[in-house]
Amino acid sequence: MMTEKMVAAFNDQINKEFFSEYYYMAMSAYCESIDLPGFASWMMAQAQEEHAHALRFYQFVLDRDARPTFAAIDAPKEEYDSVLDMFEHVLKHEQFVSKSINELYKLALEEDDYPSQIELQWYITEQVEEEKTAKEIIQQLRWVGDKSTALFMLDQKMAGRGTAEAASAAE
Predict the structure, then answer these.
(1) Residue ranges of the domains in the chain?
(2) Rg (CA), the chain
(3) Fold for domain 4-169?
(4) SS3 71
């Protein structure tokens, strides 16, 4: 059984994961509004992955005989100066999530909660990948600069990440 402190921390993380889903959905809408459907698709896949992460946390709390609770979700940012600016926000957000999960892991260590430590190792590995991917896309966007043809080609590449792939990656 989880301590009250651990349950509260996991519930906080569930809320952060659902916020992440909102955040990426808003980014998807932004990309649609500037006629970049490939980036929009990539962001929607990311939103679905965050939803799957939230549900995985939710199920873990239930499996530990605790009850998930929910808090209000803040409205996400909706406007960006550019696609590069948007991905710089992605990286900052993923770093925020990484820090939050690391703090949750630290708490699991302090509470001698071995099942939570094991579960959180999956998320820690996932966050390394999330940050790496954001950094790679930022670099590609820097190479593209203000060349519209190159941005169009990168948009086509981003469309290659399917929503089914994102959902299965979160399992």
Answers:
(1) 4-169
(2) 17
(3) Ferritin (1.20.1260)
(4) coil
